[in-house]
Design brief:
The protein is mainly alpha-helical. It has helices at about 5-35, 35-70. It has one domain. The protein starts with 5 loop residues before the first helix and ends with a helix.
Length: about 70
């Protein structure tokens, strides 16, 4: 496993947050249109995966920051 730099971890986290935000925007648009079937499909696939990826990236980044403060 390659060692990631602080910037790599920040980029990974920010990319994951951007994906969650984009998916949230799509969900809001579908809600406004009343397309609940498509909205539920996105929630069950893209949104859950995006949130899990964001949480993993956040955990790695925070773990890295904790090693710097010791």
């Amino acid at each position: 496993m390659a060692i990631k730099s602080k910037l790599d971890l920040e980029d990974e986290y920010l990319d994951a947050v951007a994906k969650v935000n984009e998916t949230d925007r799509q969900l809001r648009q579908l809600w406004d249109k009343g397309d609940f079937k498509k909205r539920n499909q996105i929630i069950n696939s893209q949104w859950r995966n995006a949130v899990q990826k964001k949480n993993r990236a956040e955990k790695k980044y925070l773990a890295f920051l904790n090693t710097l403060t010791i």
